[in-house]
Design goal:
The protein has helices at residues 2-35, 41-73, 75-91, 99-127, 133-157, 166-171, 176-185, 190-199, 212-234, 239-247, 254-280, 282-302, 311-322, 324-336, 342-370, 375-382, 384-392. It is an all-alpha fold. The protein has a single domain (2-179, 198-395), classed as MFS general substrate transporter like domains (Growth Hormone, Chain: A, Up-down Bundle), CATH 1.20.1250. α1 runs antiparallel to α4 (99-127), α12 (282-302) runs antiparallel to α16 (375-382) and α14 packs antiparallel against α15. The protein is globular. It starts with a helix and ends in a 13-residue tail after the last helix.
Length: 405
């Protein structure tokens, strides 16, 4: 059972990663195709920000709503519904005729993307023993970036261009088969079943997370989850459309190579983040990651550029260090909340950061326009978001030795 749960949850996050990596690769091509003669590079960057914000807003709402659904009807069923949501609506993107239609679909895809994380993480956390949790959490978070990496490699073989972009959306509908398998055959969390039997009452509402005994935990979790999420989408991801702008005309697959190098580093980083937190402590590791992510993001935008020899090396290192946060969060967030509200609590914390991310990305898009489409400047300014983690981590406490209560 444990292996089946881990495999299904890992694959769910792999395909989650495909959805997260899709628009950074396809956004400019979609905009060029749908906007036609009215397209400009600055307008393309603005639409990239809008598509990202729509996905993050949907993920924030989906993470809270579907996380709470997992506490009510079970982790497995909520995870299956989440996979179906992001697969079906992503596939419909191949048939849009306007930017506005794509914007609505990215929001709907986000609902499923957001719901996958809390339910998958809670299911795995409750099915594996405490001694295995750092490794298992790392494997799970590596799934997201493995999906981004796989997508980037496909796009290197079949480049995403203004004349050929629909295929990538059709492909993203394939994980619907996994959603059906999860709903029909994957076993439910025994801890969740026991807690429901023991409680003899409906699952607690989300408002319980703001009751006095959990309020500090909830607010601290939201804060430390928001910083890496906003940093990733408002700062780091500008490197991909930047690569497309600089190299796309002569080298259509360069943006995919850029995303591939980032995802390659990120797959390792998201795995080792939980190990680092386990080895040197939650607070110290978060502090060091914050310093490293700030430094490398600034270096990526100021010390190198697309097509320069050192660019992809910096991209790889930035991907590795900045995604250590997410392996860290995978270990830390579920252990903070009791079983009865674990999916709701970790989902709220992780996905409230996506509300902040939606606002941050829109602000970054406005900054991008104000700066005349200057990718290095907007990336460097937004990299300061990571620096907030240096101070924020001192507001939270190191967890007790007993992890999952």
């Amino acid at each position: 059972m444990r292996v089946a749960v881990l495999a299904a949850s890992f694959l769910g996050l792999v395909f989650d990663g495909v959805e997260l990596g899709l628009m950074p690769l396809a956004s400019l091509s979609v905009s060029k195709s749908l906007l036609g003669a009215s397209f400009t590079p600055t307008l393309g960057g603005d639409w990239f920000a809008r598509f990202t914000a729509a996905l993050m807003l949907g993920a924030a709402i989906g993470g809270v709503a579907l996380g709470n659904l997992g506490d009510r009807i079970g982790r497995t069923r909520a995870m299956g519904y989440s996979i179906l949501f992001y697969s079906v609506f992503a596939a419909l993107g191949a048939y849009v005729e306007t930017q506005e239609q794509m914007l609505v679909l990215r929001f709907l895809v986000g609902l499923g993307v957001g719901g996958m994380w809390p339910n998958g993480m809670a299911l795995v956390a409750e099915c594996w023993p405490a001694a295995a949790k750092p490794v298992v959490s790392g494997v799970m978070m590596a799934g997201l970036n493995t999906g981004i990496l796989l997508l980037s490699q496909l796009a290197r073989v079949w480049p995403v261009t203004p004349d050929s972009w629909q295929w990538i959306f059709r492909l993203s509908g394939v994980p619907a088969l996994l959603g059906i398998i999860v709903l029909l055959w994957l076993p439910e969390s025994p801890k969740w079943l026991a807690s429901r039997e023991e409680a003899k009452r409906p699952a607690p509402p989300v408002s319980e997370l703001f009751a006095p005994e959990l309020l500090r935990t909830t607010l601290a979790s939201i804060l430390i989850a928001s910083i890496p999420l906003v940093g990733a989408w408002a700062a780091s991801k500008w490197m991909i459309p930047w690569s497309d702008k600089i190299a796309g005309a002569a080298n259509a697959d360069y943006k995919a190579a850029t995303q591939g190098w980032w995802a390659f580093g990120a797959a390792f980083g998201s795995f080792f983040g939980s190990q680092l937190a386990s080895w040197i402590g939650r607070r110290r590791s978060y502090l060091l990651i914050s310093i490293g992510a700030t430094s490398l993001t600034v270096a990526m935008f100021q010390l190198t550029a697309p097509l320069q020899s050192g660019f992809h090396l910096i991209v790889f290192l930035q991907g590795f260090v900045a995604t250590l946060f997410f392996g860290w969060l995978a270990l830390y967030l579920p252990e903070l909340f009791p079983t009865r509200v674990r999916a709701s609590g970790s989902g709220l914390a992780y996905n409230f950061g996506r509300f902040a991310t939606a606002g941050g990305v829109l602000a970054a898009g406005a900054l991008f326009t104000a700066l005349g489409g200057d990718y290095p400047k907007v990336g460097t300014i937004c990299a300061m978001i990571y620096a907030l983690g240096i101070f924020a981590i001192w507001l939270v406490k190191e967890p007790d030795a007993e992890t999952l209560r």
